[in-house]
Amino acid sequence: xxxxxxxxxxxxxxxxxxxxxxxxxxxxxxxxxxxxxxxxxxxxxxxxxxxxxxxxxxxxxxxxxxxxxxxxxxxxxxxxxxxxxxxxxxxxxxxxxxxxxxxxxxxxxxxxxxxxxxxxxxxxxxxxxxxxxxxxxxxxxxxxxxxxxxxxxxxxxxxxxxxxxxxxxxxxxxxxxxxxxxxxxxxxxxxxxxxxxxxxxxxxxxxxxxxxxxxxxxxxxxxxxxxxxxxxxxxxxxxxxxxxxxxxxxxxxxxxxxxxxxxxxxxxxxxxxxxxxxxxxxxxxx
Length: 286
Prior knowledge:
Radius of gyration: 22 Å
Shape: globular
Number of helices: 14
Helix content: over 70%
């Protein structure tokens, strides 16, 4: 075996691989790289949906059965037993209008948090932006939301609720909700790689988060003394806004919607920066 002269080794460039520093330029570079691999998002999302309903007798109907089962349970418990108010709206429709956006958020977070760990065989073998795995779960949840929305439309026809032009605000509300879901999912999925406690605590976190969101009760039931803190939860603002524009036919509270959008934007930048910072060492911890 031929030995390499020490002079050659001395002049060979040395590259140290380490996590990139937290900076705005790192975020911009990550987004550009993500765009180059955007075709993988469609592929991964299709896989998520096909695997979820593969060998299922009911198939896509499960996307409507899950919120329907929760609707029945919550109606029996919170309307018949607890007798919570519903702002003059039939309680099943009142709850369903909140279950749909909440289900989008909860499904995204629950599945995306463990996504990278579950797809370790891809992370270990090939390179691609790891956030695509997380984003594919968000996209799959959006598709499920679209299917479940058919159920809501049926209930609105049954109760004789007519849509107004304010229903068009559903689009920005859902966009903000999907972006905030992405922000939370990116942060939790990155932390889950190092600390598996995150996935273990997820059911409890979502349960507490749901009761901190006006799903089974109206926003007006929240005490005035805590409403300022309560409104810092973007999901609470967006769920209430979705209910207002669909069931009540009202326009959303633009001040609160702007607050939710601002928190969402800052959260996305921060969580994406943390995700890209931790991405370089994910394969080592998996």
